[in-house]
Amino acid sequence: MEKLSIKTEFTSYDTLEELPESEREILLLAKKSLENSYSPYSNFKVGAAVLLSNGQLIGGSNYENASYPLCICAEQTVLTTAANLHPGVAPLALAIAIRNPRQVISRPGLPCGACRQVICETEMKYKQPMHVILQGETGPIFVFEKGIDLLPLAFDQTFL
Ligand code: THU
Questions:
Q1: Given this model, what pLDDT does residue 58 score?
Q2: Does 34 sit in the ligand 1 pocket, CB within 6 Å?
Q3: Strand 141-144 vs strand 91-99: parallel, antiparallel, or unpaired?
Q4: Could you tell me if residue 51 is inside a domain?
Q5: Running DSSP on this structure, what letter comes out for residue 38?
Q6: Which residues are catalytic?
Q7: Residue 13: CB within 6 Å of ligand 1?
């Protein structure tokens, strides 16, 4: 018998000013993109933005449906949009921003499990780690160097 453990490392920045400029730009687009959120059911706005290896920046937001399970998360919107607008171009970084009109969230918004799986699939597809940049409406900014750090022991194509 052997006890194993998993360690995840990430960087926490106290302010937007402290964040490296290229990452700040992606996060600011994610914050702007949440204004496009279509979320009449949850009223929870999520914005996401990706920086592609060709320098393009793309934003997206969550898109809800009266048939609740059909709600599409912002991360999935932006990653699939990027893949269709710029096929074959790897995302280098993904930022996620949130706004909850019922309370100011001052800790980083975390991607749901399904989005973590989609982020990992994208990293595998392009063989390219993606920085994941997270902030609440205010408060610290977490930066993970790779999406897989948010979903250790992920299921992937190597099992198929
Ligand atoms: N949502 C996202 O867009 N991304 C996540 O990672 C978590 C949840 C959206 C889905 C739904 O529109 C709203 O937030 C509330 O769950």
A1: 98
A2: no
A3: unpaired
A4: yes
A5: B
A6: 75
A7: no
CATH code of 73's domain: 3.40.140.10
Q: How far apart are CA 140 and CA 80, in angstroms?
A: 28
| pLDDT class of 143 with cuts at 50, 70, 90 | very high
In angstroms, what is the span from residue 133 Cα to ligand 1's centroid?
16
Count up the domains in the chain and report the number.
Answer: 1
For residue range 101-117, list pLDDT tens digits in order. 999 999 999 999 999 99
Q: Check pocket membership of 46 for ligand 1, CB cut-off 6 A.
A: yes
Residue 130 lies in a domain: yes
Q: 74 CA distance to ligand 1 centroid (A)?
A: 7
Q: What is the CA(65)–ligand 1 centre distance, in A?
A: 12
Give the burial class of 113: count Cβ atoms within 10 A of its Cβ; 0-12 exposed, 13-18 middle, 19 or more buried.
exposed
User: Is residue 3 assigned to a domain?
Assistant: no
Confirm if 89 and 53 have CB atoms less than 8 A apart. yes
Q: What is the mean pLDDT of residues 33-39?
A: 98
Q: Domain containing 62: what range?
A: 22-149
